[in-house]
Amino acid sequence: MRSFTILGVLLAAAGLQAQQAPEAWARYRVWAHNDAEIQKLSDSDFGLFSDFVGPVTDIVVKSSQLAELKSLGLEYAFVNLLEDPRDWAGKTIWSLDYRTAYMRYSDILAQYEAWRNANPKMISRQQIGTSVQNRPIWMYRLHGAISSDGSTPRFSVVFFAGIHAREWISEPVVMYLLDNLVQKSKTSPAIRQLLNSCSIYFIPVLNPDGYEYTWTNDRYWRKNRRSNGGGSYGVDLNRNFSKGFGGGGSSGNTNSDTYRGPSAFSEPETRALRDAVLAIPRVRGLIDFHSYAQIVLWPWGYTGSAPPTASELDRVGAIMQNAILGSHGVHYDEGQCYWVLYQASGVSMDWSYDLGVPYSYSIELRDTGQYGFELPANQIIPTQEEIYAAVEQFLFQLQSKY
User: Fold this and answer.
1) What is the mean pLDDT of the segment spanning 119-148?
2) Known catalytic residue: 334?
3) What does pTM read for this prediction?
4) Which of the following is catalytic: 269, 364, 386, 392?
5) Are both 15 and 123 inside the same structural domain?
């Protein structure tokens, strides 16, 4: 077994003395060799340092949890020490430039408001819900000026970020999509024509409570901030949708990072997305942005069976994959979630596809594991640019069909 089971090894790596060391955090890699072992890890109390649980999964282990890690009976190995995840705001360079730094929730909303105020004929907003801790969940609509009279678009698309709290790169990517579409509409006839034929909806942060918690209390927090009782908090919002709810790749353990909640749509955040999508006319596309893994994913996640339009999902997914590669030469994998990544039940793209949104995707952004959720700020711009290239092609594909 590849393992570090002695607390002193972890503390020595941190340069601390065991008898006086504070709690330390480390990244461990766990190997699961069958579905039962994968589910055992999913049901455990360990925080994930991977977005999904599968045959190879990285987890966050506190020094006080080493005995618990050993007791799982799974193969594991120490990867590296992690910074103390508390009070991340004190370790982050503050900036109001969303292309060079990560921003707090209020600053993200302020930037969207600045764009709305500067482009009142193209951008509007509505509150689609309220989080567990009573933060507003906003959605912004971008459309061509000639369709601002409320006429029904030929098709609509929904983009959203931050369903998982710690995946900070998703927010500035979605911000860039809106900003760049507005800017390009001023010079590009193709983009103006696109915006005059569709409405594009942007949800800046679907999980604002969890997002703020990653700044103040735990940089690796994934879930929302629902009190589950007994000192347990949080539901994995991307296991809380109805399609495949309760299946493999989710957990009924309230302490698990993949805790699915007591029932589908039990959380106000997932209900907000559901109700918003149901109210939007002619939704034909939806992309849920995540990190990290560099993969363009399409349904199903809950089962290995192919969806009815697998070949078309694969075709458009490959177009996005190639656009990403052509931007900065970075390779993203592409394919059905169940096979390309791991099983995941109750996820947003499965729900929207089942609802009738034919082009439903999740995109796992940079990187593939070197930095994980702590993607350096100098990689924000290239990530934004490569994803914009993919999304522009995605939108043109929908325009050609509707």
Assistant:
1) 91
2) no
3) 0.92
4) 364
5) no
